[in-house]
C-alpha cells in the first residue's frame, strides 16, 4: 500500500511538472528551437527549408511567447490593482456616504439624507414617513438648482420610533413635476473584494460597489 501511494504521488508530481512546463513560455520556445534544429539537420539537401517559411515559424513562436508573457504581466497588474482598490477602500471605513435609497438616518435627534434633481426646481418639499406610509413631518426646502443636495430634519419633536423611517421628495418647476432620486445616508463599516471588485459594507447591512457612492458626507 505504501508503494502504491508513493507511485501515485510521483505520478501526480510528474503530471504537475509537465503541466507547468507546457505553460512556461521559455519551455515552449526551447521545444520549438529543438524541433527547428532537428528539422534543419534532417532536411532534404535537394529541397531545403524555405527561408520565408522558417522566418514565419520563428515569428509565430515569438508571437505566442509574447502573448503568454503579456497575459502573465496583465494578471500580475490586475492583482496589484485589486489590492490597491481594497487599500483605498479601507480609507472610507468610518466615513458617511450617500447612495440611492429612501431611508432616513436619524442620530442625536437629527435626520440626514439627500436627493438629486435633473433640472432646477422652483420648490422642493420632503415628506418624512413611517414604514407604514404615515407622514410624520413635511419639510419645505424652497427652490433648488439642478444637482445633488443634502438636507437635515429636526427629529427632536418626533416621539415615535426612528427605525425604518423613509422620506419622499417632491420637486416642481412651476406646474411641472420633476423626477428626483432619493439618497440615503449610511456609514461604511468594512471594505473588501469580491471577484476582483471593491465591495463596501454599510452600517445598514448593504454591500455596494465604489461606483454606487454618490457623495461622501
Automatic annotation (TrEMBL):
Ranges for domain FlgD/Vpr Ig-like come to 107-170
Identify the taxonomic lineage of the organism of origin: Bacteria, Pseudomonadati, Pseudomonadota, Betaproteobacteria, Burkholderiales
Where do the FlgD Tudor-like domain residues begin and end? 85-214
Family, as annotated = Belongs to the FlgD family.
Summary of the function given for this chain in its UniProt record: Required for flagellar hook formation. May act as a scaffolding protein.
Q: What is this protein called?
A: Basal-body rod modification protein FlgD
What processes does the entry annotate via GO biological process terms? bacterial-type flagellum organization
- What are the entry keywords? Bacterial flagellum biogenesis, Cell projection, Cilium, Flagellum
Amino acid at each position: 500500500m505504501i508503494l502504491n501511494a508513493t507511485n501515485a504521488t510521483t505520478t501526480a508530481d510528474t503530471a504537475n511538472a509537465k503541466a507547468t512546463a507546457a505553460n512556461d513560455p521559455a519551455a515552449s520556445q526551447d521545444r520549438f528551437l529543438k524541433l527547428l534544429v532537428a528539422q534543419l539537420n534532417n532536411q532534404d539537401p535537394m529541397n531545403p527549408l524555405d527561408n520565408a517559411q522558417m522566418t514565419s515559424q520563428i515569428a509565430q513562436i515569438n508571437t505566442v511567447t509574447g502573448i503568454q508573457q503579456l497575459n502573465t504581466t496583465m494578471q500580475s497588474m490586475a492583482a496589484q490593482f485589486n489590492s490597491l482598490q481594497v487599500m483605498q477602500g479601507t480609507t472610507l471605513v468610518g466615513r458617511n456616504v450617500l447612495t440611492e435609497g429612501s431611508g432616513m438616518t436619524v442620530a442625536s435627534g437629527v435626520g440626514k439624507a439627500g436627493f438629486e434633481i435633473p433640472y432646477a426646481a422652483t420648490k422642493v418639499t420632503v415628506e418624512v414617513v413611517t414604514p407604514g406610509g404615515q407622514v410624520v413631518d413635511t419639510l419645505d426646502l424652497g427652490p433648488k438648482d439642478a444637482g445633488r443636495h443634502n438636507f437635515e430634519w429636526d427629529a427632536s419633536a418626533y416621539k415615535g420610533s426612528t427605525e425604518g423611517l423613509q422620506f419622499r421628495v417632491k420637486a416642481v418647476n412651476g406646474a411641472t413635476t420633476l423626477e428626483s432620486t432619493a439618497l440615503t445616508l449610511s456609514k461604511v463599516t468594512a471594505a473588501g473584494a469580491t471577484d476582483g471588485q471593491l465591495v463596501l459594507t454599510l452600517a445598514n447591512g448593504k454591500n455596494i460597489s465604489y461606483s454606487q457612492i454618490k457623495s461622501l458626507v
